[in-house]
Amino acid sequence: MAVCYWKLVSGKLLLNQGEWELNRILLTALIFLGITASASAQSIPKWELYGGYSEDLAGAGIAGEKQLPTNGVQVELARVVTSYFRVTGQFNAQFADHVVNIAPLPPGGQHFNSKELLGLFGPEATYRGLKRFDIFGHYLIGLAYGRDNQVPVIPTATYTTWAYALGGGVDLKLGRRVSARLMGFDWITTHFPVNSPEAQDNWRINSGFVFHLGR
Fold first, then answer.
1. I need a labelling partner for 215 at 20 to 30 A (CA). Which of 43, 84, 92, 96 fits?
2. CA distance 58 to 50
3. For residue 82, which of 120, 44, 33 has the smallest C-alpha distance?
C-alpha cells in the first residue's frame, strides 16, 4: 500500500510538473507574440506628413483648349490606421497665367497670374511589405477653388466646385523617419462652369519627402 501511495503521489507530482511545463510554454509563447506585435506596431508610424512639388496638366475635356501645365506645391497629412490602411487629407496649390477656365475670355483679353486650390480627403490603401519601397493608392474627394485672372477684365472670375481624384504612388525608404516620394500621380476631375455640364479632367504628378511621425 505504501509503495502504491508513493506512486500515486509521485504520479500527482509528475502531473503537476507537466501542467507547469505546459503553462510555462504557453506563457513564453504569449510573451513572444506580445513582443512581436509590439515591435510590429512600433514599426508603423501613427502619422505621415508629406510635402513636395506638383505639376498639374489642367484643362483636359475643354473643347478647343490644350492641357495647361502648371507649377505648384502639395502638402498631405495622413493618419495611419493599420499597415495597409490610412486616412489622408491633402492641400494643393497650382499657379500659372492660365490654370482654369471660369469665364469666357473677351476679345483681346489674356489670362494672367491665375491659381487653383484643391482640398481633398479620403481613404488610402498602402503596402509596406517591400524592403525598400512603399506603394499606395487612394480615392479622394473634396473642393476645388479657381481664380481666373483676365486682363483687362475686372473683376476677377472665381468659382468653387467639388472635385475627386483617383491615384497612387511609390515611396523610397531612406530611413526610419523619412522616405522620398519617387512619384505620385492622380487623375483629377473638377466641375468649373465654363463648359458645364461637362467636367475638366486633369493629370497631376508630384514628388517630395514623407516624414514618419509617432513611431
1. 92
2. 22
3. 44
CB distance 55 to 105 below 8 Å: no
Q: What are the cell numbers at 38?
A: 509590439
Q: Are residues 16 and 117 in the same domain?
A: no
30 and 125 together in one domain: no
**Residue partners of 95: CB distance under 8 A and separation at least 6:** 70, 71, 72, 113, 114, 115
Q: pLDDT by residue (tens digit) across 35-79?
A: 444 444 557 899 999 999 999 886 554 555 566 778 899 999 999
d(CA 199, CA 165): 13
Cell numbers for 190:
473638377
d(CA 200, CA 67): 10
Q: In this structure, are strands 47-60 and 68-82 parallel, antiparallel, or unpaired?
A: antiparallel
pLDDT at 4: 42
Grid cell locating 169: 504612388
* Residue-number span of the structural domain to which 13 is assigned: 1-42
Residues in the chain, how many?
Answer: 215
Which ranges of the chain have pLDDT less than 50? 1-15, 33, 35-40, 61
